[in-house]
Amino acid sequence: MTLRSRLCMTAASLAAAIALCVSAPAVAASGGGGGGGAMPSASGPSIDPVKRYQEGVTALQASKWKEAQRAFEDVLRVADRDPNTNYMLGLAYVGEEKFKDSKRYFENAVKFSKGEHAQARGWLGKVYAKIGDAKKADEQKTALAGLKAKCAGTCKDAGVIDAAIKQVDDAIANPAASLAPAAGLPKLASAEGDAAYLVASGLINEGRYGDALGSLREAALVFGPHPDILTYEGFANRKLGH
């Protein structure tokens, strides 16, 4: 079963649970206890973070910057510490050339990933170079070099780290160059996200938790803060003693 299929089942179960919760207060209210209607949590806006994340990605791919920003801001209302959502929102602000805003979200992506989000570091370095702070741009390059050394050139993220280092180098060499947010989007297709998730599942079953986290990061970039991915990430990190 694909991750998308599991998502549909989760959504169906959630809808049934919400319906049950909403119906209960109505019955109680008929007993004459004042108030009435649905609970406050059920009457507020409902946000499906996985769906909104994917809508934001689609808007990014179509260069609809405002639409992408609204989608990712919705996700952050329920998952404010998600590194990938912060990263994507940073890209959406780059599209409007609002580099100070984009810098904030790239910094969040780095912070909430505990420094492991190579793409966010690459774009943060590019933005620093763009706004004339070559020193901080170079700091991101140094941090990426540290990730590469930790990776030892053989881990799942090796190619991503090399690409991010090149991004920063190019931006430092030519800070006036236009920044194209589309260049920050990896291959974001559901089939590839499913494939990365299945690889991660297999690696976890083999006890290769560090390698599994690399594949889970790929899947999370496609699907956003999906509960199945987050559960596996938590499990793998716990096994690694994090």
Description:
It is a single chain. The chain has 242 residues and is mostly helical. It has a domain at 187-242. It is 73% helix and 0% strand. The protein has helices spanning 3-29, 40-43, 49-61, 65-78, 83-95, 99-112, 118-130, 134-151, 158-173, 190-205, 209-223, 227-239. α3 packs antiparallel against α4, α4 (65-78) packs antiparallel against α5 and α6 packs antiparallel against α7 (118-130). The longest helix has 27 residues, at 3-29. Residues 7-36 have low confidence and may be disordered.
Keywords:
242 residues; mainly alpha; 12 helices; globular
In helices, the fraction of residues equals over 70%
What is the overall silhouette? Answer: globular
Total beta strand runs? 0
Q: Name the helix and strand elements from N-terminus to C-terminus, one letter apiece.
A: HHHHHHHHHHHH
Biggest sheet, open or closed, and with what strands and sense? none
Report the uncertain regions.
Answer: 7-36
Write down the Rg: 20 Å
Distance between the amino and carboxyl termini: 30 Å
- Count of helical stretches: 12
The helix-and-strand class reads: mainly alpha
Strand % is: under 5%
For the residues shown, what is the average pLDDT?
81
